[in-house]
Amino acid sequence: MWTFTAWCNSHLRKAGTAIENIDEDFRNGLKLMLLLEVISGETLPKPDRGKMRFHKIANVNKALDFIERKGVKLVSIGAEEIVDGNLKMTLGMIWTIILRFAIQDISVEEMTAKEGLLLWCQRKTAPYKNVNVQNFHLSFKDGLAFCALIHRHRPDLIDYHKLSKDNPLENLNTAFDVAEKYLDIPRMLDPDDLTNTAMPDERAVMTYVSSYYHCFSGAQKAETAANRICKVLKVNQENERLMEEYERLASDLLEWIRRTMPWLNSRQTDNSLAGVQKKLEEYRTYRRKHKPPRVEQKAKLETNFNTLQTKLRLSNRPAYMPTEGKMVSDIANAWKGLEGSEKSFEEWLLSEMMRLERLEHLAQKFKHKADIHEDWTRGKEEMLQSQDFRQCKLNELKALKKKHEAFESDLAAHQDRVEQIAAIAQELNTLEYHDSVSVNARCQRICDQWDRLGGLTQRRRAALDEAERILEKIDILHLEFAKRAAPFNNWLDGTREDLVDMFIVHTMEEIQGLIDAHNQFKATLGEADKEYNSIVSLVREVESTVQKYQVPGGLENPYTTLTANDLTKKWTDVRQLVPQRDQTLQNELRKQQNNEMVRRQFAEKANQVGPWIERQMDAVTAIGMGIQGSLEDQLHRLKEYEQAVYAYKPHIEELEKIHQAVQEGMIFENRYTQYTMETLRVGWEQLLTSINRNINEVENQILTRDSKGITQEQLNEFRSSFNHFDKNRTGRLAPDEFKSCLVSLGYSIGKDRQGEIDFQRILAIVDPNSTGYVHFDAFLDFMTRETTDTDTAEQVIDSFRILAADKPYILPDELRRELPPDQAEYCIQRMPPFKGLNAVPGALDYMSFSTALYGESDL
């Protein structure tokens, strides 16, 4: 509030007045309107001079309307609040005025007023040590930022280097005193508040700093003006320098072109090759050493001119106009003339060199080409007249023909050399070479020999073609023979192997298939005979051609080692083996007919025995399920079946005799029956085993029933429940089926964790080997123990303890006295000696013996 009061007074004093209390002195609106006139420079409407409340409200509204016309939006600030002395609203209004008239006009690089003012502070204080302006609260707390702003614009007022960051109060007072005394900026901040407040008021600091900005804005304008003048002068100086450099470079380049042109336009020579070569070397030195720097000079000249014109255009200066004769176009024309003279001079030098060199070069070229041609033709006529191809084979002849074709290509290629030799000779005659006579004579010899070589080449080519035609005919016959003889020979070899091949058949169909295949083979012998005669005729034609043209080695076939004699011998063998194969197949047919009869005998008997065994097995299984009659009835019927099975054994023995014939005949399959001897033997053995096992089970059940006191009804109930859950009639139950069976018999098994533990204990009793199944015997034994009173090892031990008069051992005499003789001797022989304390001679351990009886020890 003190800062805003000071800021208002800094402007009201210009009108000769001031305020003391900001929330009271603006209530009538008069000083508020005066403040706005001072800071804006404009005249507000005439105020109402009455002292009534509505007069005050009217004046304040005039001030607020003026503020809104300046583009300031007043939010929640009304005239009534100001008139009523609302401090918060009054301060908000004053801050809005400060923002509009003291801060908003600050513009730095198109930023907002606050950002622009902060950037202005940062730029002005950047060179100063210990000053880092980042905000309008903490960055100004030590006072160095205020001192730096003053020192930057008025270094005569403050010695900044004597200030210390450790004395913030001194720094603030120094800055505020100097600003008030020399810059007419009143104190708006309290140094003690700044140093003692953790976060100074940002708006107060901005208000005070904006006074610095407006105070130094005049100095800023002067600095900007000076910089602009320096910039303009610097650009002008640089432009003048470029103009002077252009004039100098242009003059120097034009002078060099003027001096060089006469030398390039000169055509004088001593008419010697050495003289022309010297001038050519001088020109090359000019192009390599003297001209490149001038090319760079010209490029620099053009670059400087373009740069100069661009700078003049960008700085709004008139375009540069060089002095007369030094325009860019003048230089370009002079350079173009120089290049034209260079081209003409170089063309003249080269044509003169060519003219002087040509005669000597042509003479040397004629001699060189003539020497090469004569070396190439040496021995060629003798080679073309040779008859060496008459003794060649086809591949050698083709090689000779390829060689001759290569020679023809070489000959055609040399045609150009002969024409060149003739053209050179003609040119030497045209240029009147001094030794034209010898040149013409040598050229004539070369042309005559060339004509002879052409005729000999054509005749040798015709002879080679005729010899090739004959050898190719023989080769085609040889190749045709090889192509047809190889598969025919393979067919003969395969046929001979097939005709003598051993075969093994087991059925009539197999032997009949072999006979049919053999008959089909015999039907193809006619075509094979034609192929044989056709192949042999090829050999006969070769022999005739070789004899007619006397071709050396013509009878040798390079494509195969087979001969007509080889094929004839094998063909004869095949024709002899065919009837032998016929006899072998007929013998095997009779053998398979006999085997078929044996199959039918075995099948007829097996089809009787097999079903009989199955019926007996089903009947025994039904009895074993315990669903028919009492145990004694079941035992009686099983023994009857046992007698019937033994009585049926002769049928098995008869089948064994037939099976022996089957094995002797090597008969492995029998489509007339599904039974094999092995399956019948297994069935017979399983039937006997099943009868014996069921007899044993029934006897054990009778024993269990009689010893445990189980009634027939209980036994039938156990069997009925077991069979009910034995869906597949396997005589065993899975664990889930066993549990259901127990539940059906009234056995309580809980569904909780304890019930599962109890069931696993029961399962360990009935399936001690963990096979995963419970058989009826184990099931019956378990149910018997669950439903009857049984003896235990503890009960037997207690009985022996009574006989021994409570001693831990028993003597043989005591056993003989209390037990029947045979049972007493049984115990004496099996009881181990007693090894405990107070043992007497002959003492026996009845405890170990008792536990062993129930399988509870290792005795």
Automatic annotation (TrEMBL):
Show the Gene3D superfamilies listed in the entry. 1.20.58.60, Calponin-like domain, EF-hand
What residues does the Calponin-homology (CH) domain cover? 1-102, 111-217
Would the keyword Cytoplasm be found if you checked this record's keyword annotation? no
Q: Which residues form a coiled coil?
A: 232-259, 390-417
Alphabetical keyword list: Actin-binding, Calcium, Coiled coil, Metal-binding, Repeat
Segments forming domain EF-hand: 713-748, 754-789
Single GO molecular function: calcium ion binding
Similarity annotation: Belongs to the alpha-actinin family.
PANTHER family assigned to the protein according to its UniProt record, in alphabetical order: SPECTRIN/FILAMIN RELATED CYTOSKELETAL PROTEIN
Q: What does this protein do?
A: F-actin cross-linking protein which is thought to anchor actin to a variety of intracellular structures. This is a bundling protein.
Q: What is this protein called?
A: Alpha-actinin, sarcomeric
Q: Which organism is it from?
A: Timema bartmani
